[in-house]
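Hey, quick one: can you model this chain's 3D structure?
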Amino acid sequence: MKFKLSAQAFIICISGAALLWAARGETAKNGFIGQVRAHYAAWDTNRDNTLSVNEVELALTNPGIKGEEAAAIAALRRGMRAKGIKSATLEELNDSVPFDAKKKPAPPQYDSMYEVALQKINSVKRELFVTETPQLDGLGQGRLGDCFLLAALGTYINHDPEGLKKMMDVQPDGQVAVTFGTGKCVVLPTPTDGEVVIGALTRNQGTWANMFEKSVGQVFLEGQKTERHVAPYGIIGVGGSPHTVLQLITGHKVVRVGCENIRKPGLDAATREAKLAELRAILIRNQEAGRMMVAGNGAIGEQNAVTVPGIYYLHSYGVLGYDPKADTVTFWNPFGNGYKPKGEPGLKYGYVTKYGRFTVPLSEAVQWLGSFSVESEQRLDG
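Sure thing. Here's the predicted structure for all 382 residues.
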């Protein structure tokens, strides 16, 4: 049977298609791929028709890149890092949008990443300090692998919130001078739109966490032996040790105190308790002296570590305090997360966690923790 379309219906179909094409064109113009097409040539600084990770990092830290363009570069940075993409041509990016889960390998979900980035750019308060003092319960890790840095920052805020404000001094030209406990000072522009998207969250307390991330990254950049990294967020985004950041904050040598020997298989009860008593003494002495601590662990099962629900591995933690009477340690997870055990809190079900804070008996903490890093009284050389 033949189907004949009336002239009126034909006009309606054509008009509808035109509207659809126009809508798609507007989306392409204003969305992720539209921004990429408009700015790809400018981002490709070496003019080789491909965007490297370092070129994306440089664009992210460029204060002239704002708004929708910054949201696109932040989405690109996030997607490339997540998928291990070392470079991307314009053709490859065009082919990645819209997202198609059937493609092998599946591309990053750039459109949704772009929308999230743009929302954050439009909502974050840009003052350095919005509240009178920084609050730990507002701090959380962003889209960087910098739990090590935030573990030290969170510990510092808990210990001396006024200290962070004193560390940062806004200059007449709007830049910020950040002076660490080592005496090292860096002067940098405030965080860019792209850095705000990728960096830590403070729940509208200001950009102090992003400024701290950026300044630590700059110190690391200046100290790198090879020019592998080109921007502050690039170098801190690949991980590190909270030990190093705590030394930078305090200007004091930080000493590692391992937990692996306390849970060593075959260790008799008396020896284990003696080692635990040594650790208790260190924690008490450190706390009474007003010095800070951070902590971290390795991969699941590494060095006979117990796997505990709600505990993250290959991860760094702030240490907020030790209670000698209860023999418990209060930790802070930089994710700022919550967790509710499905049974009695402990090694089997994990620990109640609110805004990243959770308290653990010391005898249980050493079963999953890799080490404590303890601030000493010794000043660093230089």
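One thing worth noting: The mean pLDDT is 92.
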